[in-house]
Automatic annotation (TrEMBL):
InterPro entries: ATP_grasp_subdomain_1, PEP_synth, PPDK_AMP/ATP-bd. This is Phosphoenolpyruvate synthase. It catalyses: pyruvate + ATP + H2O = phosphoenolpyruvate + AMP + phosphate + 2 H(+). SUPFAM superfamilies: Glutathione synthetase ATP-binding domain-like. Its EC number is 2.7.9.2. Catalyzes the phosphorylation of pyruvate to phosphoenolpyruvate. Pathway: Carbohydrate biosynthesis; gluconeogenesis. Residues 1-20 form the signal peptide. Keywords: ATP-binding, Kinase, Magnesium, Metal-binding, Nucleotide-binding, Signal, Transferase. Pfam families: PPDK_N. One of its GO terms (molecular function) is pyruvate, water dikinase activity. Its cofactor is Mg(2+).
Amino acid sequence: MKNRLLFCFSVFLCSYSLLAQKVDAEKIKEQITFYKNDLRGPYKDIRWFCSDGSVRQPKDPCPDNIGPGNQHARYKDEVENLGVTNHVYLGQILTYTKHDAFWDDGNNNSRLKQYQIDKYLRAVDDGWINRKSQFYRGSIQSEDEEAWGINFYKWLLSNDELLENNYYLIRQSLKDIPHNGDDNLAQLMRSQSKVLSDLYPAFMDLRVKIHAQPETKDIEKVIAFKTKHSARLSSNQTKILDELVATMTIFFKPVDLVSLQQKATLLSSTPFGETFKDYVLVHNKVTNASDLIQDTAELLVNLRANLLTEKRPVARLQMLDISIKLEEVIFKNAPQWQPDTVEQLVDKICYLGMATAAAGYIEQYEWESLSLTKSVNLNNESTLGELTTILQSGRRLVEWSSGMVKANYQNEVDVYTNFEPLAYGFIDDKIRGSIALHLGKSVGELGDFIAKESSLTNKVLNIPNQSTIRGLNPGYAYGELVVVGGSPDAIEVSSNKIYVFQRPPADLKPIAGIATVSEGNMVSHVQLLARNLGIPNAALSDENLEDLKQFNGQNVFYAVSNKGNVIIKAEKDMSAEEVALFVKKERKEGKIEVPVEHIVLHETKVLNMRDVDASNSGKICGPKAANLGQLKKMFPEQVVEGLVIPFGIFRNHMDQDMPEQNQSYWSFLSAMFKEAIAMEEQGIAEEEIEHYQLRQLEILRTAIKKMPLKADFISQMEHDFKSVLGHALGEIPVFLRSDTNMEDLKEFTGAGLNLTLFNVVDKEKIFNGIKDVWASPYTERSFKWRQKYLLNPENVFPSILVIPSVDVDYSGVLITKGLTSGDDKDLTIAFSRGAGGAVDGQSAETYLLKDAGGYQLLAPSRERFYNSLPITGGTLKNTATFETPILNTQNIKDIKQLAKEIRQTMPKETNEAYDVELGFKDNQLWLFQIRPFVENKKALSSSYLESITPTIDTNKVISLSKKI
């Protein structure tokens, strides 16, 4: 085996280019396999590194006249090169690394995060790439690494802005970067239990308990397990069990608060130091868990509030170390606080939430927006509605805290998962090591209580903790359940299956139903399509997803009611009424027809956007251009100039001869649909017909992209571009927005199905982009959505809206309706930083703006990356932090005023709400699109959905002393 590995690795080295050519994941896997079996792992040799820059042999220390030095390993050449080509850093030695390089500010702090992932992998995989080299003496000097860590934090914590903007990440890094001799015992405990369950599956139940709800009595359970299974355990398994018991024993020892206070040498005379001293005096010997947790949570809040006031870096380091220990106090004692009444449970949720915020898992302004305060009621009573509000705030807090972990680490975890699948467990480990683990359990208990009191109960197979599941869009579906734990982007979805994802894919094709851990945002294209088409859609927790994996591949019935309760049941458990919902109907029932009787195809001139309005929608051009032209008349200073390439220009070009087909492009398209109808009449299976159509459309799409543009069209584009937009074609960047006649129909939105090209400058790229946009309605995804819901999907005509780019600071969507309240007078807004915000499923900052006044934060942004639009074209990726909200108070006022004017002045053809895309640049509001907001009336009015929607008496009075 060893020789084979050496041979594989030598082949790899021969083929490895020292040029900056990215190494693919398979080759990195080969490297890792080799390192696991190499006595030196990722290291080449050991040297002395002297302060004058010289490097000396291991037995030749730095002489006194040169000054002190450090001894440690050097990386193998290919490890060094992997950092250059892939920005992947394996087996990092801190003493070897400059502080700013390790902080890696220009790359989303990637090196620091990789160091943490590396430590996790070593814990769960027997040393990982250092499996054998962990015994390579002298490769890493622990005292040098710890000294480096202290100096790193002195450097890092001297910067107020870095600390304020990256509080969560910096605080988490303290758990992994050596600087004071402490170990991350909680992670070690989880890692040892995972390793043991992998080696000995009978330990799985105990592993789940230790991961989900660790408490002191688990030590006795592990000892009892060892006794029961002693005859079947190998010596190695017994050794790991003993190590686990030792780790748990140390972990569950009470934190020595006196010793912790004595280490905080720089804090004794500070305001926080005085408060900490009083806390230690009271609580060093306290045994009452509820009192301890409440006071510790309040001290954590005090600590975070005073951290930036303290300017000494080492004092800040001492405060952060105390913060870590205080979180540990709460984590250890939370299982011991067992509330008996509703009031006690609400108090526990409040204080665990307070500590979660103070520990950085959510931002301070987010915590304040939740208004989750300790219950005080003179009558010792509350209403069901008030308790439900607390439950919703608690759920949000749990979701937001999990989102913080994912937002900070997901990118690096995805990179590592490509070559080391075990890395995917890192985020789950971080979440389970946080106070949010216990907070989630308490919120679940409150949800169970409210469910019983309100009869609003989820019935999702037989999984536990169902109160964390909540419906987003009403609807029902039947099909195979597919549970996807990893990235959804490579999954080929089927229109008759129900999917559970970590996050919704941005380019989702038609499916029967969907549930996601990360819902993205309420107004993304995916969510709007689901809402429009009556696809049941729900949000759930990571734990729910894991529990559903056992049902993967089974046929299930799935329904979300109008009030958001969720049902998933096995096929065998379906009622007669539920079975009847899926009796095969006529193929065309429930579909709609794209109106083409008024379409104008003889208009073959480029139009000034000022010359079109809402009355031209579906006739000369699509609704994007028509409605933006309408907005230009209404809000001339907030809408850019624009050009419209009408349907007629596309249709005129489609009459040209198609290469190698002896017919025009249009004739080729028409022949394909005629053949599909003939195949259907012959009884050929739908799947085969669809496969034929997709093959033909691929041929057509490829041909359109190569189609010659007519000279008169090119000439007019050049002329009108300069006269309308004020610059010659190729001088300023523009958006090319697909704008078809199949969008924004009364019963079909078509949101996001076709191509929009961002920030194109080059003249040739603009003309090629026009053809790309014309071809986009014939992609598989766009065609499948049309084919599923339209009677005449062949009658799609694309126009194109050409508008100058605005490099907005943030952008998003306004819906002139309260999506969570159901009130037509409320507003829903979602914004992300940069251009294209909220529409592609980003984790957006979302608000409910209430007609009665005020607003409610429904979700904060958790999107680390956003697009900016340079004048040179294309997009640049920037990174964001989350310490302040995206929208300011004036922005929200401007949006409310805009909504008021839209409601007053837009055509009154329907009473429906509007979906508006907009952005802010230097606090000036810009409008980019308006369309009707379409909901699925069938799903909303379904008698079955009404039957599973209980009537809730929100005014029901509940005694806070009631037992839970």
